[in-house]
Write a sequence for this structure.
């Protein structure tokens, strides 16, 4: 299994990246979110290498309208996706564009009007990451 570190990306961007990688693998593998990583698992054929994953990630990032914000770094056998726009700044823009009374999870996009449900939802993310709130 190969992992791409995308801790500097928003939850929506991580999902989109995983979808792009899975689509580019053409059934030979699948990419799933694993916390701050996109984990790529081989389903059939030879093991999927860093060169192929780097190509897919690079292709996806370069196709975005904000491509200049992202760059890739390779450390040994791992790939790290960096963003010059902090996640919190992008999430703030999303929250500001929501109608009044609507709350959206910055990690996965979950929407609710209940502050209690919103806090419970955030706690669930923290529990999955192993952080106590």
């Amino acid at each position: 299994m190969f992992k791409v570190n995308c801790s500097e990306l928003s939850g929506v961007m991580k999902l989109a990246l995983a979808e792009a990688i899975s689509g580019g693998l053409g059934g030979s593998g699948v990419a799933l979110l694993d916390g701050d990583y996109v984990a790529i698992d081989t389903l059939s054929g030879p093991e999927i290498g860093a060169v192929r994953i780097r190509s897919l990630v690079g292709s996806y990032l370069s196709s975005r309208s904000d491509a200049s914000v992202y760059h890739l770094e390779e450390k040994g056998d791992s790939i790290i996706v960096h963003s010059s726009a902090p996640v919190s700044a992008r999430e703030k823009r999303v929250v500001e564009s929501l109608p009044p009374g609507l709350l959206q999870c910055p990690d996965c996009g979950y929407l609710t009007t209940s502050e209690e449900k919103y806090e419970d939802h955030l706690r669930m993310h923290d529990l999955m990451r192993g952080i106590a709130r």
In short: The mean pLDDT is 82.
